[in-house]
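Archive entry: two folds, one per protein. Generate the first.
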Amino acid sequence: MVAGSGLESRFPRRYPDGRQTNQERISLTDAASIGGALGATKAAFDLAKTFVDIRDAAKLQTVRLELLNLLVEAQEAQSALIAEKRQLEERVHQLEAWDGEKERYQLQDMGNGCVAYALKPESAGADPAHSLCANCYSQGRKSILVPFYISMGSASALQCHVCGSEMVIKGVDGREAGRIAMKMTPTKATFGRGARI
């Protein structure tokens, strides 16, 4: 080979028996080392990519769980709103029905200064004459007053079984008179012919 011809770089020198020269050994060793290093680097890169994929999958799973929780909360809120809407619609329906119903009644003096809402004669139709509690009427409830008699004072009264109000419309409530008399008597009362209790 001709020195300086550039052929030496393309064709390495060999010994006559075919063995490689040191220069050729170094270049093959370097190529093997570089190849091994590249292989190890690729394996490390693939491993790092796998770790990133695993981390991304874990993050994705976390995001999915958070999203599912948000969806469940949104569905619960929607269900609550639907139930509230249904209740409000029912209440509006009740108020509209009450507005029509309360037009059938007028405030009337029942006696002894007591007032109640009595059924108007022109609105009676097939309904019997009756009166509604003024307290319940003002709160949007239809509560029919029930007549009863107080035996001690021979009084007639009306009672609401919803709010518990009572009104004496005729006579004197003997129960009240008895309570007042008990408050006014001394601690020892006498009955009949001087007998003491």
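Generate the second and append.
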Amino acid sequence: MSSTLSPQDFVAKWRHATLKERSASQTHFNDLCALLGQPSPAEADPAGRWYTFEAGASKTSGGQGWADVWKMGYFAWEYKGQHADLDKAYRQLLQYRESLLNPPLLIVSDLQRILIHTNFTNTVKRVYELALDDLLIPDKLAILLKAFTDPDRLRPGQTPSQVTEETARHFARLAQLLRRYGNEPHATAHFLIRLLFCLFCTVHEHLEHFRLWLLWASGAFFRIYGPWRLKNTPQVDRNDVSCLMLSVRHVRRHYTLLPVR
């Protein structure tokens, strides 16, 4: 096994690195292995059958691609250069995952960030984000170690149906509160339909411009009729405002509608 590397040494080494993706990715990954006390791909699997760099994969859209690192039953990993679009890297892995036997984790990173996307069947997706300095924190470093040793410990607890049921309850509560404080029923229903469309548009890349328009329209509606106005209304029940804010935050957190402030 390669020599170990302390978190402080790892962070110091990579903090100011400006190497391009191709020249840095394998060295960076091998250093992560040393940091975590894990064997590198070449040490664990010299034949490259189940743990390897540059794993060939057929794309679901057709053609051939290469995952930067693949560990069967654990993860597929894609690197990008500094300040590159890690969402694009994730979309690449989505193209490869079936060919790579659907690993439980899809991980993307540059030299400053690591994003661990869960990929478990019948669970709500969760993303663990680790910045470079997070690797100095034992609890954060433990998340990365689980990806290498026991990815099932990163499995989300909620199923999609549970989140859907909870979201439906929040939508109903939103409708009740918006009507209670004088919002016209037709306008309230129209606003909630906009939110509902946003939930579906977020998963269709080709509807990105339509989704952004919906977000702008929904945000404008909330600035007029939403909890910010309610907070300044003397007759409003503070408990209702709290419930409304929690409902909005739940929808935003699970469906990435607007930034949570």
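Annotation attached to the second fold: Residues 7-154 form a domain with the tt1808, chain A fold (CATH 3.90.1570). The CA atoms of residues 177 and 240 lie 7 Å apart.
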